[in-house]
């Protein structure tokens, strides 16, 4: 019998001004700053992406957060997975949206946290050697403080769980010194706090990565092709396109239809390997000619990726049938499910239709 998939959309809480971004990039800077100033860099390049239904919103506005939740729920998404920034020594950034969500109890929509444990530099803006804030790991006292800071979210009734355990994802588990010790520490603290434990998900770009060896319950993987791919000369047209792009100073360009298999999970992936699906990508608003573009992404092409993934995981039990969607609102990476003026609700409608199709299959199993 088909098990219903749990679709979790990664969520960027950057769309409100903060003191640090004002200082680094100018007063009032948010992700909209890069999004709105983007321009086409080659023929038929789709830029800029202009938001439709939700507009150029500010995440300090409760009505915006409520509208986002309603839109996601109406299209088959179970919850948001908020990027969470803890840089060590108690330093947090962009925490306001989730803190206000916790305090107000609204929106009444499931959520979890994804620790984006990486340093911030100017790489997005063509300044790779400019360090803005460094990710650090001062030691056990800081790990304890980190757990205490996020524990209120774990106890929230809206928090996403697997077998009753709060799901917490980490972007770079391999960069945490003695990460197995840290995961053991956190699990111990969770039990002492009255939780049944934690469901820890590590991100890796190596699908052979074994989560249990480092104290994790699951792995999520997503892959982007290299910025300057090696292309066989046996494919002369593709090779010529690459050389043309390099000589003209263009970003790296892939046709989305050419990378569908690269982006899809492997058929033999284990149940604890949670796919992370990329429906579109174009980070030239941030990186300009150093960016990467999936040219020609459409809702219908994404349908093939989503349908294949749902089919691959059709026998995974519901609790673990988790699929991450990258992402809900990374606008300056051209990576947003939120509607824009070109596709409207197209990507969300595909998700809704494919989930409904899966539901129908579950309720009407084929007779053998």
Please, could you describe this protein's structure?
It is a single chain. With 368 residues, the protein is of the alpha/beta class. It is 32% helix and 19% strand. The protein contains 11 helices and 16 strands. It has an 8-stranded parallel barrel. Helix 5 packs across helix 6 (179-192) and helix 10 (299-312) runs parallel beside helix 11. Mean pLDDT is 90; it is low at 230-237.
Which helices and strands occur, and which strands form pairs?
Layout: E1 6-11, H1 19-25, H2 31-37, H3 62-74, E2 79-86, E3 92-93, H4 96-104, E4 111-115, E5 120-122, E6 127-133, H5 140-154, E7 161-162, E8 165-170, H6 179-192, E9 199-203, E10 218-221, H7 236-247, E11 252-255, H8 260-263, E12 273-278, H9 284-287, E13 292-295, H10 299-312, E14 322-326, E15 329-330, E16 335-336, H11 346-363
Parallel strand pairs: 1-2, 1-14, 2-4, 4-8, 8-9, 9-10, 10-12, 11-13, 12-14
Antiparallel strand pairs: 2-3, 5-6, 7-8, 15-16
Quick structural overview:
The chain has 368 residues and is an alpha/beta fold. It has helices at residues 19-25, 31-37, 62-74, 96-104, 140-154, 179-192, 236-247, 260-263, 284-287, 299-312, 346-363; strands spanning 6-11, 79-86, 92-93, 111-115, 120-122, 127-133, 161-162, 165-170, 199-203, 218-221, 252-255, 273-278, 292-295, 322-326, 329-330, 335-336. It is globular, with a radius of gyration of 21 Å.
